[in-house]
Amino acid sequence: MTSAADCRFRSCTPRNPYGLAPLLIFVSLPFCYGFFEQRCYSCMSMDFKQKWKFISDIYYPPMNFTDACGEPMRESSIATVPCSSACVILCEASYIGGQFAGYNYIRGCIGRIARNGFNNITIYKMGAEHRAICHRIARSQLFRGHAYMEDQVTICICYGDRCNSNRAARSGSYSHVGIKCQFLIALYSTVLYGLNQ
Question: In which band, very low, low, confident or very high, does the pLDDT at 197 lie, cut at 50, 70 and 90?
């Protein structure tokens, strides 16, 4: 005869291995959060603020106009924006009276810098759709709808949370987070498959 205790015990035994899925996902979330919830630093050098009325039809406004946007960037002074794609650093030479006066910087999410967007074919040829890369290129080849701009700019494209800073680029923190997250997902899939056999 089956006792009531035996019935209660059997009723608590998980018959469906997929019942562990919510628990495994919950445990993985803190590790994967930084991988999916990516943010980019958003700023422009002060020179852009002084010229804003002339360039506002080209660029979206950043979170900060500040000289802290340059190299080395002062991270504590720069705000961030959410980004579901790539982070960007744009660097262009500044001239005063025909004389070189240093560099100006733009940092942000690739979809929130140029109002008309960047040339996708150029980005593809750079190989930036698959890996972090820096490339010097004519502005007319990079920006859509501005064929008359022939000066050169340097664009760096990266993937990962706050990767468009000096420290993140040096540390390679994105790759560590990405590998950790991929490992957890693979582990979850393996455990789930084993339980289902």
Answer: low
Total-model pTM: 0.66
More confident residue, 103 or 21: 103
Please tell me the number of Cα atoms within 13 Å of 86 on its side-chain side. 20
Relative to beta strand 99-109, strand 133-138 is: unpaired
Angstrom distance (rounded) from CA 75 to CA 129:
26
Residue 185 in this model has a pLDDT that exceeds 60: no
Planar angle of CA 91, 165, 95, nearest 5 degrees: 20
Residue type, 170: R
d(CA 45, CA 61): 12
- Those residues with Cβ within 8 angstroms of residue 45's Cβ, 6 or more apart along the chain or in another chain: 65, 66, 67, 69, 70, 103, 104, 105, 106
Cα–Cα distance for residue pair 105/125, rounded to 1 Å: 23
